[in-house]
């Protein structure tokens, strides 16, 4: 198997591992995937509703400030 497939939210990205290894002199930032964690966290926060009590408390604190 020479490919790595990443699927998220109905989209998929296919990585050719051997091609990436051949181009190891390229900019190392191109090979980083830390942004995946940030995107997942952002989507999780948006798509996961907070409990009603938490929403009331947070909104009340915001109103006081």
TrEMBL record:
Q: What is this protein called?
A: Uncharacterized protein
Instruction: Report the source organism.
Output: Trifolium medium
């Amino acid at each position: 198997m020479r490919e790595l497939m990443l699927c998220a939210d109905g989209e998929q990205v296919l990585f050719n591992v051997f091609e990436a290894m051949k181009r190891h002199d390229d900019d190392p930032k191109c090979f980083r995937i830390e942004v995946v964690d940030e995107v997942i966290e952002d989507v999780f926060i948006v798509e996961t509703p907070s409990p009603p009590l938490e929403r009331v408390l947070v909104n009340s604190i915001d109103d006081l400030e």
